[in-house]
Amino acid sequence: MKTVLPDRQQSLVQWVSQATGINTFGVKVRLRGNDLHILCEGTECPQRWRTLSDLLQALQQTNLDILTNREQTSIYQVFVYGRRKGEQRPKWCHRVYLNQIDKHLEQVEQALLADSEKSKQSGGALIVSNESLARQGNPEAIARYLSETLSSLGVSVQAKIKPYKSKNSEPEENRLWIFCQSSYSPDASLLAEPIAEKLRYLKLSGYQDAVIVSQVRGETAPDWLLRVDLTPPEVMLKEWARWGDIQAIARLLTEVLSGLKVAVQASLKESTLHIFCTPAFDPLGTAPIPDKALCLKLIVPQLEAIAPQGIIATTVYGQKAGDKQPTWIDWLALPATNHPAFATSPLDLANTGDEPAIIFLLERLLNPDLDWRLLTGGIRVLLLKKNDLLHILCDAPVCPGRQQVASKITQFIRHLKIPGIMGVRIYGRRAGNKEPFWHYGVDLKHRQRLVPEATPEFAATSKYVNDLVTSETSEPILRPDLTTEEVQSFVTEAARDWIATASATAKRFLLKSQLFTESDQPAEQSPDNQGLKIALVWGTLGLLLTLQTDWVLGRIIAQTTPSSSKVASALPSSSGQKVSLTSGKTQSEKTTFFSHTPKTKSPPNQSSVFNASEFTQSDDTPTKNLAAAPLKEKATATAILLAARSQMPSFNVRQLDEQLALYKQRLARSSTPPDVLIVGSSRALRGVDPAALSKALATQGYPNLDVFNFGINGATAQVVDFVIRHVLEPSELPKIIIWADGARAFNGGREDITFKSLATSAGYKQAFQKTPTNGSTNDLPEKENTVNSVEQKTNDEKQEVSTYQAINQSLNQALASVSASYQNRDQIKSLLQKQLLIHGRSQTVPSEKQLTDGTSDESISQQAVDFDGFLPLSIRFNPARYYQKHSRVPGNYDNDYKSFQVEGEQDAAFQEVLQFTQSQKISLVFVNMPLTADYLDPVRKQYEQQFQQYMLRLATNPNFIYRDLSQKWPKANDYFSDPSHLNRFGAYEVSKKLANDPMIPWPVK
Q: What is the rounded distance in angstroms from the CA atom of residue 332 to the CA atom of residue 234?
């Protein structure tokens, strides 16, 4: 609410006191918008007409703008109140239009002459309302008219007329500008429809539209703009009636026949319009039936002028409202009979791609309430075809909701099947804005985009629109006759029987050992002596068995060690000799020499055995060749060396230290940050290939883009937030960040082990000891408390474990000095594994050995990232083999989904990232990475749906894009290294998918 300054307020009070003779203590004034409110009070209520007479005479001689604040806009009307002191409500109120003071004076003088007790007349002067003056198109009158509504909200109004030249018309046209000022920022949705309704109610002529500008008083830039369509309701009705809209035709004919007091109802059957003429008001049933000649005389010219599309003829009926049979009937031919162009229905035209017909059908679909459209202008539709895409923009005084219009439009366009259209892009915005508030896209058919589509004129700032392609997969039902309850009861009974049998067997065994007795069995005379004897016997037997086993294993190892040592001793001398002789030879010659070494013979192509793409191949099923980016040089050794030399302390997360070292090296070499940064957990580390992404973007018109993968194993939203806002400086960040991850990283219900380990590090402390330029200063106390609490807990745990470790170490050393096999325990382990493989599964020894070696090599290479930060894994997920080595963990036992909830500390971290990227004008793209069908059981699917809803709610944020690829390839196991991680073949496909995305605003060099 706007009030005048104290000195100005005092000036107004003194002016009112001098004009009316009322003491200044009895005068109060207040300014709201363009209205001045004056309250006059005394021990007795001031006389209405005498007080008004004095004020009006003073108003004739005074310019109120001089008495008010210079920043205050003009005053259009004055409200004068009178009351007795102590009362809550005024006894009388009078409104004075400052542009009609003379007429107000005449009214007051006549009221003073008349006896107020005997005459109820308010005077002979006619006060013209602001509405009547505004209908004439006067801008000052329009401002006064709008201020009647907006002043109560503390909004002042000014109106101006400015000429403008539209693109489609040569002569200049007038545009009405409404400037709203207030001491606060009113919500556009609060003022949009009331202003639109009041302006359209005036039915102004000479204006195509009006522009509403809202501005906070004292600021230079407008807060928001709003465009109001001032097309008269009659023109809107005729436009829809021209397309054959039945409701619009009935409304037009009712207005035409209103002079005859005839109401019209209409319906359409096939291509014939049926019009029913009834008395407009006939409560008693005595009104005459509408005259046939008079009705047809008015209806026929109107229908011929309209020429409704797709309507060939009309039948007119005359009857009373309740009659079943009409009194008279007439049949008329419409222009579509003689003009075939008018005979085609709007739906048929839309199927051929006719844009005006599509616009009409869409506007009719989105504006089911005709009265609301005529009152506010409704939702307007703009259409644009570009290549094989149909761009549709919906705007209204209040931005249409995406859920309100997107599904309707998509379903309608699918039904049309327009030739040449393979996708639709839908936008929503508030009328008057240049940029859409939201966008939505669907591909109707599979489309291969080789060249980026140009941005339509009404599109958003992002270069391309949304490309949401939903794909649903259904798992096969093996036994549809079984219900969930039957399966559950069967499993429960089987488990109960198994537990009872196992417990009975174990009980019998323990009783036979005589170490245990029945709990209800009576005790013997000397239980202690008997128990001691039994324990001594069994302990002695166990010790003898242990010593005997140790002695046997020692003899076995002693027999096998000499032969192995001979081979080992022979190799160095031979190899040393050969190296000295062949130091100048090629690598192939060296390989040939080693192939002749006894007991170490390998296939000629030794490198292929250890190639990651070869050792994972199945023996019985041929593998298909998959596309992938070439493998690049490994950077593990360099990363370890750089991390060791770095002046920044460690973060207790080795991979974060190494990735940061590689990233800093990249920055030092190029002096600029990469163009695209990939962040996230191991799903990002393995799932997005920078080389493949850069190459795919080059084919899309974005050459030479530098991409770096900053993925970290186990990274949650808190870890990513810490890296982006506190580890890296704003100058070290690119203009687009790809966050590749999934629901697990946003689970606020589980313990964040990675972040807790990071929070106890020296690097974490140093990051917060620096000036917090990257993040909010409010984060510092909370983060420091986290560090202190985690450190205290860690110290307590270490103190508890230290005693146990000391005892364990001393016992190990004592036993090692006595044991014959302890020193060779690694050889015993490998020997046992070899014997088990030979005797247990002799038919698959080569392939299993190859798989074991390969898996071991693969596990070692899991830390071998390249210089782009990417971890390329070539192993392909084979469920039959994978679940022989790893347990199949269902979703309800998966710790990553424990107590799943998206609200909490992870959500808070994500909100911080959103605010930070928006403030830095960095585009953030979140990609929900693919998962296998084996991984997505019903429990995990339910959590994924919750995560989907969470992300879709946040997708309306500016500079944020959400992409869901979680169920893109549920059955393509060759793209995965395990149930939830991609290999380098899947990473290649994801990178290509992202590069072809029509919405992501990739940077242009």
A: 24
